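Why should sequence recovery work at all? Because a backbone constrains its sequence more than one might expect. Tight turns favour small or flexible residues, buried strands favour hydrophobic ones, and helices have their own preferences. The token representation captures these environments compactly. In the example below, the structure is given first.
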């Protein structure tokens, strides 16, 4: 005669307890992972600082970048001669492209 196997999870109470334990374990894993991530980010900041000398304020403190005003880059100005040379070069390129199509 074969023995039948009895389930130790009889009733809803034990499955809730099992789910509670599993959830608790997952929460601990999440907390551990977040702590490890913070540690790795700290190490990365230190490496960036040592690689470049002094780190820019935006890389060193991401929260400070949100509150600081963005840097405005000075607009570059071309001389009239440079604009003329660029325009002539572009006209030559277009002429060459049109000649190739005919």
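From this structural description, the recovered sequence reads:
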């Amino acid at each position: 005669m074969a023995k039948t196997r009895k389930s130790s999870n009889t009733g809803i109470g034990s499955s809730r307890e099992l789910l509670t334990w599993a959830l608790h374990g997952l929460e601990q894993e999440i907390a551990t992972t977040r702590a490890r991530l913070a540690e790795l980010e700290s190490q990365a900041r230190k490496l960036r600082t040592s690689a470049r000398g002094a780190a820019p304020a935006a890389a060193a403190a991401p929260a400070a970048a949100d509150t600081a005003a963005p840097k405005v880059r000075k607009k570059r100005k071309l001389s009239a001669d440079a604009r003329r040379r660029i325009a002539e070069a572009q006209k030559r390129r277009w002429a060459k492209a049109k000649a190739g199509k005919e």
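A few observations help interpret the result. The helical segments are 12-52, 57-60, 62-67, 80-101.
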